[in-house]
Amino acid sequence: MTIPNERLMLERLKYTFENEELLKAALTHRSAPAHPEEEGGETDNQRLEFLGDAVLDLIISDFLYHRQPHLKEGDMSRFRAGLVCEARLAEVAKKLRLGEALILGPGEAHGGGRNKASVLADAVEALLGAIYLDGGLEAAMDTARRLWKPYLSRPESWLDILADFKTRLQEETQGRGLGTPDYELVDAQGPAHARLFTMAISLGGQHLAEGTAGTKKEAEQLAAREALAILKNEDTVTPNAN
């Protein structure tokens, strides 16, 4: 089975595989039909994704530990979460044009799988897992640091890429005596394979912000991010009397 646009992706990745079977497995989504000759090896990227997730966590943790000695443990955990979240992984995948090189089943391909954030994020982790097995930890570290350089080189921007805006919003509202934010689904549109959800945030019954994304969780995070921006720039929300 040929892999579409594999060469272009590898040029952007800047890594040459000794074991091309590892590369093929990393690019193969679980929806792709298995072939008899693949029995005994990895037939898709699920196990490599598991490994790559741990490898990436280690690499980013190592970077934060050695390059940001002033950070406390809690801050390190939060920044790492933002640097390796699904949205960040998907951004890296898009820069590599990784979606074009994926091996997908017909249903996933027709359903827009090459552009799904979850599929792209899993594939990046699988790719890092494959590089770790193929070339060792140093090769994986070199690759990850190169791919994450736009983020790692600008620590002043990390607050804007934290994954857990919901936690930050709750800390902010409770610190101001505003209570706990309430989340509500206000709209859902589009076909099943490309559904868009809009989540709204309110405080004490007062509408604050909305976010729209392909999953409810992502929409909540976007809404929380918008709410944080509003709270920082405006004093329009009054504390809950209760």
Q: What order do the SSEs take from the amino end to the carboxyl end, as H and E?
A: HHHHHHHHHHEEEH
Q: Any idea what the CATH superfamily of the largest domain is called?
A: Ribonuclease III domain
Output the CATH topology of the largest domain.
Answer: Ribonuclease iii, N-terminal Endonuclease Domain, Chain A
Q: Compute the number of helices.
A: 11
Runs in which pLDDT lies below 50 for 5 or more consecutive residues are none
Known CATH architecture of the largest domain: Orthogonal Bundle
User: Mind summarizing the main beta sheet?
Assistant: 3 strands, antiparallel
Helix content: 40-55%
Give the overall silhouette: flat
What count of domains describes the coordinates?
2
Strand order in the largest sheet: 1-2-3
- Average residue pLDDT: 86
Explain this structure to me?
The chain is mainly alpha-helical and 242 residues long. The chain has 2 domains: 6-161, Ribonuclease III domain (Ribonuclease iii, N-terminal Endonuclease Domain, Chain A, Orthogonal Bundle), CATH 1.10.1520.10; 165-233, 2-Layer Sandwich (Double Stranded RNA Binding Domain), CATH 3.30.160.20. The protein contains 11 helices and 3 strands, in the order ααααααααααβββα. A 3-stranded antiparallel beta sheet has the order 1-2-3. A hairpin with a 6-residue loop joins strand 1 (182-189) and strand 2. Helix 3 packs across helix 4 and helix 3 (46-67) packs across helix 7 (117-135). The radius of gyration is 20 Å and the shape is flat. It starts with 5 loop residues before the first helix and ends in a 9-residue tail after the last helix.
